Amino acid sequence: MTASDPLTLSGAPLTSRLLLGTARYPSPAILASAIRAARADIVTVSLRREAGGARAGESFWSLIRDLGVKVLPNTAGCRTAKEAIVTAHMAREVFATDWIKLEVIGDEDTLQPDVFGLVEAARALVAEGFRVFPYTTEDLVVAEKLLAAGCDLLMPWAAPIGSGRGINNLFGLRALRAHFPDATLIVDAGLGAPSHAAAVMELGYDAVLLNTAVALAGDPVGMARAFALAVEAGRAGFLARPMTPRDMAEPSTPLLGRAFGESA
Predict the structure, then answer these.
(1) Average pLDDT estimate for 40-61
(2) Which of 67-76, 194-203, 244-253 has the lowest mean pLDDT?
(3) Which of 26, 37, 91, 248 pairs as cysteine with 73 (C-beta 3.0–4.6 A)?
(4) What pairs with residue 187 in β-bridges?
(5) Residue 262: per-residue pLDDT
(6) Would you list the DSSP string of 127-160?
(7) What is the side-by-side order of every strand in the sheet holding 186-188?
(8) What is the pTM of this model?
(9) 238 in Cβ contact with 201 (< 8 Å)
(10) Contact in structure between 163 and 182 (CB atoms under 8 Å)
């Protein structure tokens, strides 16, 4: 990302449009190397995982401090608005931040958000001074309600969490971007390959959030680097205004001045 194309989240200027999750890495050393390779400014952290033991928490915080990245705690695993609100309050105390990635899961198989509980929790948390980043679907009506509730941005899924399928609903993501041109939109969940990240960035999305695609890769550090390049390329492509697709061929070489002659 160039200096002329900055991204600011809740008043925090970023140097990268790639956000990285911190779960399921083979080791803390590989996690640290992946974060550096991704050039990520923000990492997401599950309160349930990091607060499970004092030593584990101290080790994680030491790693984060050394990297100098900003923590975005999330309410992963919450199934009701009440549970998410309580978890957000705990996260604010543990991580000393008003930022919260809000997740309220409604379906066990797809991990699809419960959009009704999501809006309820978002409204309550915004009223209590949180900067809410909701994990949601591409539904336009839900998006409208979340923004009206005071959410700083939206984090729609591309596909189910951890599926690596890429964009399941291209029309939906394109419509969401077009319907809310001034809102910050970050694709969260379902991306499995760097090409998927480039594709959503070419749609005009502001950033992507990844975890599984990097953590479970054969080479997490190499994959983090590949995603960083893909995000940058996708953003550059969007800013360059891609050509409009055509149904018919159009020659790139003009016919005028072409040599004519009979074949031997």
Answers:
(1) 71
(2) 244-253
(3) 91
(4) 208
(5) 55
(6) HTT-EEEEEE-S-HHHHHHHHHTT-S-BEE-SSS
(7) 155-156, 131-136, 99-102, 70-74, 42-46, 18-21, 207-210, 186-188
(8) 0.89
(9) yes
(10) no
Q: For residue 233, is pLDDT > 70?
A: yes
How many whole angstroms from its chain centre is CA 262? 59
Which residues are CB-neighbours of 13 under 8 A, at least 6 positions away?
A: 6, 7
Rounded to an integer, what distance in angstroms lies between the CA atom of residue 10 and that of residue 25? 28
- The answer to whether the beta carbons of residues 186 and 236 sit under 8 Å apart is no
Q: Which two tokens stand for residue 230?
A: 């893909």
Measured CA to CA, the distance from residue 125 to residue 103 in angstroms comes to 12
pLDDT at 157: 96
| ∠ Cα 238 243 249 (to 5°) | 150
**pLDDT at position 52:** 46
Q: Is the pLDDT of residue 69 over 50?
A: yes
Q: Which two tokens stand for residue 32?
A: 């640290």
DSSP 42-70: EEEEEHHHHTS-HHHHHHHHHHHHHHTPE
Contacts of 204 (CB under 8 A, 6+ apart): 177, 238
Confidence band for 47, pLDDT divided at 50, 70 and 90:
confident
Token pair in block for residue 161: 């969490």
User: Side chain identity at 175, as an amino acid letter?
Assistant: A
Rounded Cα gap, residues 231 and 181, in angstroms:
19
Helix (H), strand (E) at residue 126: helix 115-127
Q: Active-site residue 70, yes or no?
A: no
pLDDT at residue 86 greater than cutoff 70:
yes
Return d(Cα 98, Cα 251) in angstroms, integer. 55
The sign of the torsion formed by the CA atoms of 103, 109, 19, 32 equals positive
Which token pair is 69?
A: 């990245």
* Torsion angle of C-alpha atoms 13, 15, 18, 23, degrees rounded to 10: -80
Which listed residue (70, 82, 101, 145) is catalytic?
Answer: 101
